[in-house]
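Supplementary Data S3. Sequence and structure tokens for construct A.
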Amino acid sequence: MNGLIELDLVRIGLALGLMVLAIALSAWQKLGLEKSLAIATGRTVLQLLVVGYVLEIIFAINNPWAVLGILMAMLTIATIVARNRISKKIPNLLPIVGGSVLLSTAFTLAYVTLLVLQPSPWYEPRYLIPLAGILLGNTMNAAAIAGDRFVSTLNASQLDLETHLSLGATPQQATELYRKDAIKTGLIPTLNTMTVVGIVTLPGAFTGQVLGGINPLNAALYQMLIMFILAIATLITTILVIQGIDRQFFNANAQLREFSR
């Protein structure tokens, strides 16, 4: 296979031309998205340049504490973003989301690192950081989607829930169908991707490896691994988040609370 085509400043400048065209198209159609597109472009460039330089340093140092520090920073940001998308008024939501994402990500990374890849050393940043980034991004989105759906449904179903409680149902029994629906909703993006991967879509990880010169079959196997870890991590995260939110909606006397977003 041919070597990787390096993207220099000229090529990146030409690529930025696509965003200039997007902004011009928005202005032509009077969509009002010009500022949003410009800000998104600027943040994309800045954030990816920063992470590129930081990871280059981390890869060179190859120190477990530096790797764990990066992972904790990523976890913190993912937790805050997911919490903000669900609600800022539900008590203890930040530790609920953070603990759920941490547990699911740690379990999945430990399984993959110790049983599947077995890199040496175990904290090899080339594997640990990219896999953690993929997991955190997807579990964050799954938690936000499921949590938002669950909170909205509970707030809109106050009368139905109170009726169940008045008839002797426990809080868990009253919200059972809503919990299942929210968890399924959080899993929809992952399941949809798994259904059409390789047929309709070529995921970014697969495409990036192929563009980087990796054998397509090997890239496909890595993508298979990624889909499997995303499925289990997002499922664990959504279950824990929904159960945690469920408990916050009822007081010690099994009385229903209401939280607006």
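Construct B, processed identically:
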Amino acid sequence: MPLIRPFAGLRPRAEFAAQVLAPPYDVVTVDEARARATGRPWSFLHISRPEIDLPPGTDPYAPEVYRKGRENFDRQIAAGVLGRDPGSCYYLYRLVMGSHIQTGLVAAASVAAYENQRIRRHEHTRPDKEDDRVRQIEALNAQTGPVFLTYRRSAGIDSIVTTLTSLSPEVDVTADDGVCHSLWVVREPGIIQALTSEFEAVDRLYVADGHHRSAAAARVAAARRNHNALAGERASDYFLAVIFPDVQMQILPYNRVVKDLNGLAPEDFLGRVAVDFDVQRVPSAVTPARAGEFGMYRGGQWYRLAIHAERIPLRDPVGRLDVSLLADHLLAPVLGIHDPRRDRRIDFVGGIRGLGELQRRVDSGEMAVAFSMFPTALADLMAVADAGEVMPPKSTWFEPKLADGLVSQLLD
């Protein structure tokens, strides 16, 4: 079974692409999704967040939500807004965000490779979120949310991609956030085989974002294998993916906000922080300049924190991460947050929202303290995955985000 293979993608006709493309389902709230989809009947949010078409307060995991998603999906296909390519293709997908450019391959990635760790993961998943994605895949009989994969750069792949993207794309859309999404369709059998062979020579792929989508796809594949024991590959033996070279990836910080000081007086809190960190009052917001440095905002004041060097376990690929250092030396021992995945006293703020969002949430009284982070390096993500370890939750925030609706994979 190859690492990747082409497939006949379901995608919007070029004239509908700007109306269909939508942000990923999990980066917008239901209220944001409803607002974005208002007046846009073909927005993919009607498929990825179908609760927006049901009464307010509807449980997003209710059976009628998945049925509504399928109804909306079928409606777009019947109207000719979405159409399936007649043969198996690869697709090149370019995102441009300001001066940042990244170009990846849209492909069907092997579930078997995911299961045997040739496609490596670095996060735990939550059962409820996995269940949601399984239900969504089964309801649509399709995979519509691509898994974001990366690999160590290959000169052979670079050469093919550069040649193909010198031509005009079939889709070229600028979303309302200013990010440009472009798509090239690769139909030529010789080029398809060349790309398949080049990726077969890649040692391994890494899940950058989309752990719940890939885990759900593996569950669907297993269930369908068990239900139908006939030999041969099925579409469900592969999952929808976009694969980018590591050198083009952009990781922003994933900042933290905490509701209270765990019963500590402000002076005592600062004293406890100073046990493992150098603490410096500064006049303006802190964007950490290097690993081991953090910003902290509390009571209208910014502080620059620097972890004491002897506290960094350099040989531990997980323990040396900034997200781990903050958790192990401040969040847990000082603020009493021992399980960031489940503790409701902590929240996470993607770096795309800026430091002003941290100040706003503290100044409003919603939160007591905020921490700005230095971005996790992709090399560290790969090191953790290669060691078979798991990163702390919310360690990475990738930008720009992949659009939903650009290409989907049917599972017939």
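The mean pLDDT is 96. The two ends are 19 Å apart (CA to CA).
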